[in-house]
Amino acid sequence: MAQSGSTRNHQALEMFLAPLMILPFDEPAVWAYGDLRANLERRGTPIGSLDTMIAAHALSQQATLITNYLHELSQVTGLHVEHWVPAA
């Protein structure tokens, strides 16, 4: 019997995630989100809610955020960001 697209996608996602450590969005991340959002709004430089959430999670873990999306995230003070696409 052939697998459905949904089953194949689920298996592909599981294979992709297997070597990664998934960190919970815990209470320190929640507090970091609130602090970051308030700080960005006070400075008049708010960024998207999900970008704020991702940045706050990285800040709460003292992690480097690997991304190709530097424009808004560069406004987050103290966030270590690494561009994942090599320069052409």
Compute the number of helices: 3
Overall 3D shape: globular
| β-sheet strand percentage | 5-15%
**Radius of gyration, taken over Cα atoms and rounded to an integer in Å:** 17 Å
CATH homologous superfamily caption: 5'-nuclease
Low-confidence stretches: none
Helix fraction?
40-55%
CATH architecture grouping: 3-Layer(aba) Sandwich
Largest sheet: 2 strands, parallel
Mean pLDDT: 92
SSE-based structural type = mainly alpha
**Overall CATH class:** Alpha Beta
Let me know the number of strands.
2
> Which strand order do you get reading across the main beta sheet?
1-2
**Total count of domains:** 1
Question: How would you spell out the order of helices and strands?
Answer: HHHEE
The termini sit apart by 45 Å
Describe this structure in words.
The protein is mostly helical and 88 residues long. It has one domain (21-83): 5'-nuclease (Rossmann fold, 3-Layer(aba) Sandwich), CATH 3.40.50. It has 3 helices and 2 strands; from the N terminus they run αααββ. A two-stranded parallel ribbon has the order 1-2.
